[in-house]
Amino acid sequence: MHALAQSTLDQVREIIDVVDGDAAIDAAENEEIRGSLHDALRWVIDGNERYLSSMHMQGRTDLAGGRNMPVERISADTLREIKDFLDHMYMNILIHGTGGTGEEDAYYASVTVEGDRISIVQCNETDDRHIQSHPGKGLTLHRQRIALLGGTLVTSLDDRLWTLRAVIPLHEPA
Questions:
Q1: Which of 66, 95, 101, 170 could form a disulfide with 113 if both were Cys (CB 3.0 to 4.6 A apart)?
Q2: pLDDT truncated to tens, each residue of the chain (174 aa)?
Q3: How many domains, in total, are found in the chain?
């Protein structure tokens, strides 16, 4: 059963790799994000957490800052990457994370807007079969996009604890 699920997941990833380019950009450009950056981030975070919860993956994301920053002050490319990166981060939690048991959370994330940057830290436990199951093309793509924006994405795995740290500068529109 696990082999069939893994095979199906690999096929879905191949489709996403093909479709991800222009379709994802068009979808992001058509979304109307208004208000503060905090409100926009809360909307993305809440949607992803609801989805994870529906898949029996419980966790917590803390959000700080951005209440006084209108999204109009941030470039569309930067907003798109933040949203795409957060969506990808939560999907990876579902795919690679081990579910929390009882009162233990399966993941923790912190999203902080400070000055002219956003910092994202996320951690979850994983097991050996998930570590080996995918070459990580999605994170490589996000690492490149974030670097083009002048930011950094660093990941680590220590004793089955996956940690991700991203810093993305908040560029103003040209």
A1: 66
A2: 445 555 555 544 544 444 444 444 444 444 556 789 999 999 999 999 999 999 888 899 999 999 999 999 999 999 999 999 999 999 999 988 887 666 678 899 999 999 999 999 999 998 766 555 555 688 999 999 999 999 999 999 888 899 999 999 998 887
A3: 1
Amino acid identity for residue 133 in this structure: S
Task: State the Cα angle at 155 between 46 and 19, rounded to 5°.
Answer: 60
Q: pTM of the entire structure?
A: 0.79
Question: DSSP E strands: which ranges in 11-97?
Answer: 59-64
First to last CA, the chain: 51
* Range of the structural domain that residue 103 is part of: 2-169
